[in-house]
Amino acid sequence: MAIKLFDNKGTRLDQQKFTWRDLVQKPISKLDDDAFTRVRVILMNGIEQQANRFQHLCSQMNGELRKPLAQVRRVEHHQQTMINWLLSGDHSPIETTIGYEQVAIEVTAAIAQQEPDEYLAQVYRFGLLEDFDHMYRYSALLDRVEGKDANNILQSYTDIIPGRPTIVEHRHPLDDLRDHYDRKTAEPISKMNALTIMSGEYQTRDYYMTIGPTFADPVARLLYAEIASIEEQHVTQYGSIIDPDETMLEKWLLYEANEAYNYYSCMEAETNARIKAIWERFLDYELGHLNLVMELFKKHEKRDPAEILPERLPDPIPYESQREFVRETLREEVDLSAAGTAFVDKSEETDATRDYRAHINSEGSPSEAVAENYLWHPGTELSRKAADKAA
Predict the structure, then answer these.
(1) Model's pTM, two decimal places?
(2) Which of 7, 124, 228, 240 is the S-S candidate for 208 at Cβ 3.0 to 4.6 Å?
(3) How many domains does the chain have?
């Protein structure tokens, strides 16, 4: 089903209403729902969170837009609430973390393959291998702290093996900046891909910064501190590929189009009929937001939104296991690093990055400590001990 952006008016803003019972619905099942339903829930929470953050910043810098921003932002906040509250309370913080990393791996891998700009695709593959390693480290932590198998959450869609080792991912800030796309020539899908991945990584950073201090286990506290730092690097990387010369209204148009695109992708892939109805509802809401911003764009910039937006939403993001692509990328690019905005072999790293990494790891590496002697096998440590005794 192709969505024509200029023909679909969506739900009018004054009809987008919620009650508390409406906002807080029955959560998904941790084990019975497909893992990609959780992936979609987590991603869309991040998409809405970033939309809200952008609209607040835009409001602080643009008095003319404050009223429409406030109206749209309230709805975006309630959309995020409904989505975030779909996560069930029986997810432990580490299990939710495993879910976050599965989002980073599977969604980034899917987008890397559909990205038409090869440089941007390389940016996504580069970050993908780092999140892939984070999955492995957190799986070791889940086994250590809770005695659980991360594959109960992943449902065999995503491998649990090392990626680019977290210990070597630490780089000088100037080596995490990337060349940005050109707003005048880049394909709309490239602009939306950048917003999708940045939004997902931003919420991951915020989540780790929030829950990291809540652990009593010292290795857990250290590991969340270390990986939160890498997530900050990733937000820097993905944020820097966005053209800074886009106007605020241009950016707002792209945010609303990207939200519609992501809800459309979720709707097309969803297997839980109740959750699919939420994606359909919010797709209509976002089309309503988009049409409002189109009118603002015409009024304030005297420009045609067709300069910025595609006529139709692109093909939906495929929500399926990207195992083979990830394995191929791991084989070919695990030894890549960055020097300035260029990707280079690790032997060509800058002295600034080497000095930064040496200092931050000088008192030990949490990611190495948590995975020492860890090798994922089906089942938990207790089940493996029982199997060893039986043998």
Answers:
(1) 0.95
(2) 228
(3) 1
